[in-house]
Design goal:
The chain is of the alpha+beta class. It contains seven helices and twelve strands. It has two domains: 16-116, Phage tail protein beta-alpha-beta fold, CATH 3.55.50; 123-197, no CATH class. The strands form five sheets. Strands 2-5-4 form a three-stranded mixed β-sheet. It is globular and about 60 Å long.
Amino acid sequence: MQFITTLAISAMCTVNPNARNLGALIYNDISISVEDRLASDVLLALEEDLGLLMKVYWETDDADGCDATKTISLTLRNQPAVVVLERIVNKMGKEENGATWQLRDGVVEVGLKSVLSKKSSQRLVTYPIMDLLFVVGDFSFLDQNNNKKTPQTDDEKQKQIDELIEKITLLIETEIWEQNGGTCTITNYRETLLIRAPDFVHRQIGGYAFIPSKPTGVKERQVRYGDGRTSVRRN
């Protein structure tokens, strides 16, 4: 019994290794004014100012990546650090291959989307989907005798699931899905979506399951991940 109790307490005290980095990006407001500065220097300054552990995947003779000679010109005033990071990273992509950031194993990773979405960087996440599958204002599902909804058939459920999958692969990072020639997969099993993808994709589908670390005395902020960008609402 003592062993079980110890395990329970340890589990409650465990903090997601990415919570601190996400909190630093969301709850720190910074200003930046640079002109034709190397992207590597700009990211290093950001890493040091925020106390982040950052890994940037630069282009080498043996591997694709961001151009280390790329320069950044950017001026922003009093913006959440995540907004600043995204504006920097957006300037580091290539015409045919955009760049982004993601959280993995307590590290903020920056790189081309094709690099960050390699199978070694993907994780499998399950999303219960039946709560998302409902019909608004369609009274054909009502039984006129007892005013109760008639259960959907298996074919009707599958049709809605297929439509949901189609919308996700169309609206979220279209190029990375296996259906479109990418490496990420999405399927369903027993009314659950099974999605194997990198962090920058998962956050646009379901956000983060953990709470970002927040400095004491600071009001909680509302964060939205989608459309390839992060928006922060400061209360």
